[in-house]
């Protein structure tokens, strides 16, 4: 398989993650805070923490979100990809 073709397959897999509205809500929330816990996300997004954990885990596996241990808490942070995704969302809102 040509390397260029593999790039497009990998890109399509990553874009599939963005097809879920709750994942987009999580990404947007992570873009507006430096770091947030799953419990805080669940409260703000009015979702069960278990659901948030499942959604976040897929975003972590793809590298969109990073989980950082901070004492007894696990904080979730976005990276440059989150900023790019939110910029695209902002452009779509205009």
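^ structure tokens above, recovered residues below v
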């Amino acid at each position: 398989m040509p390397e260029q073709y593999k790039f497009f397959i990998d890109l399509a897999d990553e874009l599939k993650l963005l097809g879920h509205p709750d994942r987009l809500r999580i990404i947007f929330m992570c873009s507006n805070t430096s770091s947030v816990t799953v419990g805080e996300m669940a409260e703000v997004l009015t979702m069960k923490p278990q659901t948030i954990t499942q959604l976040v885990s897929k975003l972590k596996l793809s590298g969109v979100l990073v989980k950082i241990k901070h004492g007894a808490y696990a904080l979730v942070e976005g990276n440059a990809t989150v900023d790019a995704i939110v910029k695209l969302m902002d452009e779509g809102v205009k």
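Residues 3-93 form a domain with the Arc Repressor Mutant, subunit A fold (CATH 1.10.10.10).
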